[in-house]
Amino acid sequence: MDNQFTKAVNIIPQTRTVLQEFFGLLSDKKPVILIGLDPETLSLIKTNFPELYFSYTKSCYNPKLALVAISKSKLLATITTSLLDTKMQSKDCYKLIGILLGYPQCCIENFLKYIDEDNDENRYNASKITYDSLKSSKKLSYYCNNLLNFSTRINDSKKDNFSKFLSLNQNLSIKIENFQYLSHIPCSYDCKESTKYGKEIEKLLKKYAPEVQKTIQSTLSRPVIYFDLFEFVIFEGHMSKGVLYYQKVLQPYGLINSTLSKAIKKGNKIEIDGKSVNVYKDDSLIFTYKKKNESDGFFLDFK
Ligand SMILES: [Zn+2]
C-alpha cells in the first residue's frame, strides 16, 4: 500500500487529477473519483495503477478530454458513467453520484436544496451557498475550506472568469486544483464528516507529500473576504471582535473590484457591516465599498 501512495505522489501531479482525491480513492474513502483526462495522462495512470478500473464518458467542458470514472470496482466505475450519460438532472441522480464519489450524506442532502430541476443557476450560486454554509457554522475549520476548489462549482457562464483568474495566478507553488481537502461542497464549515475526511487526507499528505500539505494548510487556514466564486481576498492577519487586522494579501488572488483592491493593498484593517466593506489604514477610513446585497462581501475566518 505504501508503494501505491509514493507512486501516486510521483505520477498524479503530472496529470489533471487532484492528488488528495486520488489518495481518497487509494485509501478506500472514496468508492469512485471523476476526472477529465486527455489520452496520454489517462494511459499514464492506467499503466502505473493496473489494479484500478476506468470507465469513460464525454466531458461536457472540454471536447479534448474524456470524463473518466476511476474505481477499485469495475461495477461502480461503470454505474457512475452510466448515470452521467443518462443526462438525468434529477435530484435522485445527483444523490447517487454523490454517494458514489464518497460525499458525506449531510453534505449531499444540503446540496440538493440548491438544485432546482428546471433552473440550473441556483446550484452555481457560489455566493449564496457559501453565505448559507457560513450561517450554519459555529466555527470555520480549514479542513472544510472549499473556496479554491472550483471544479464542482463552476458552470459555462463563468468559464471566462476562470481563465482570467488563472492568468492572475500563474506563479503558485502548487497547482490551483490542489488547494483543497474536500472535493464536495460542505453543508457547513464545521461539518463533522467533512472535517473527519479532511483530517484523514491531511494525515496521508503529511506522510507522503509534506511540502504540498504545508502549502495547502497555510493557504486554507486564513481569514478571507468573500464576494463570489472568483471574487475573494485571502489575508495574512487575524480577526478580533468581527474586525480584520492584516499585514498583507496572499495568493491565490481573486478578481475583485479594482478600486477596492488598491485600497486593501494600502490599508491594514477592515470592517464589514450589512451595507458596506470599510477599509482603514490604522484608524482612518480610506475606502468604502457599497455592497449590492448582504452576501456581497463577508468574512470567513478559517482556522
Ligand atoms: Zn456535511
Give a written overview of the molecule:
Helix content is 38%, strand content 21%. 35% of the residues are buried. The chain has 303 residues and is of the alpha+beta class. The chain is globular. It starts with a helix and ends with a strand. It has eleven helices and ten strands. The chain has a domain at 1-89 and 96-101. It has helices at residues 2-11, 19-26, 39-48, 74-85, 91-100, 105-112, 126-135, 159-168, 192-208, 210-220, 258-266; strands spanning 32-37, 53-58, 66-71, 223-228, 231-240, 243-250, 269-272, 276-281, 284-290, 298-301. The strands form two sheets. It has a seven-stranded antiparallel sheet. A three-stranded antiparallel sheet has the order 1-3-2, with helices on both faces. The longest helix is centred in the middle third of the chain and has 17 residues, at 192-208. The mean pLDDT is 93. Zinc ion (ZN) binds at residues 104, 106-107, 186-187, 191, 193-194. The site of zinc ion has 8 residues, from helix 6 and helix 9.
